[in-house]
Amino acid sequence: MFKGSLVALATPMKINGDIDWDALRRLVNFHLEHETDGIVAAGTTGEPTTMSFSEHFDVIREVVNIVDGRIPVIAGTGANATAEAVELVRYAKDVGADGCLSVTPYYNRPTQEGLYQHFKAVAEATDMPIILYNVPSRTGVDLYNDTVSRLACIPNIVGLKDATGNLERAAELVKRLRNEDFAFYSGDDPTACEFMLAGGHGVISVSSNVAPKGMHDMCEAVFKGDHDRAHQINTRLMPLHSVLGIEANPIPVKWALCEMGLADKGIRLPLTWLSEKYHATVGEALQLAGVLEE
């Protein structure tokens, strides 16, 4: 089971929008040095919807090669077409990823039965562990708990990344599947600590891009039963969690990585660089979190 702080890795780009492979290597090594528990490559934060198929493949392969087995690499393999999601998951298997994160098909708004059949087809195309990803605020479709329960019966569907921020709903599903070999990951940094205290196994985090050690330590405190320390760390990181959503992800986190010297000023349209009016706000949050000096 994947566990702990899993970073939803941003993809460093040059000012002209080309993928910056040297910066990608630096960023992955930054996470290895700061105890990130796993890396999600080419997930939503990695801007895969702006990449060509070959670029998407290359990012997954490069992260796998850099990590070289030291921590798990989970490939972002979601797509709004089932055939495309199947192709991505097969490629991830071929290049040695340890698992896949598969987002609900976006924009076309399938029924719950359509979602079930989509993920069933993806799971049947591979023997890799698959984590479902529900983020209705971005996809326009919600994966209901009843559908997750059905999908949990498929052996290689091993978990859910829940980015709804609805702790009551998450707790109900944890209770329902507590006796199953099924993992729960928060996809919402502001509620991640409480999510894990309610039975979650980790967080797939945007904030981990810039505060990997803090997110790792918070998860470790939860797992050790040190709830006071977990809350203390979470309180320190909360301003960061809040401002990294001030504009659409990954706009703020890419600005933060640039300020930290880990990436260039690169992002792809239709996303744009962080609005100047938010620079001071995000910079202050980075200082409060202890990841950027004043």
From TrEMBL:
Pfam families referenced in this protein's UniProt entry, alphabetically: DHDPS
EC number of the protein: 4.3.3.7
Subcellular location: Cytoplasm
Record keyword Cytoplasm present: yes
Gene Ontology molecular function: any one: 4-hydroxy-tetrahydrodipicolinate synthase activity
Annotated pathway: Amino-acid biosynthesis; L-lysine biosynthesis via DAP pathway; (S)-tetrahydrodipicolinate from L-aspartate: step 3/4
Domain of life: Bacteria
Binding site residues for pyruvate: T45, I204
Principal EC category: lyase
Site annotation Part of a proton relay during catalysis: residues: T44, Y107
Any one GO cellular component localisation term in the record: cytosol
Active site, per annotation: Y133, K161
HAMAP family linked: DapA
Family: Belongs to the DapA family.
Subunit structure of this chain's protein: Homotetramer; dimer of dimers.
Protein name per its UniProtKB record: 4-hydroxy-tetrahydrodipicolinate synthase
Species annotation: Larsenimonas rhizosphaerae
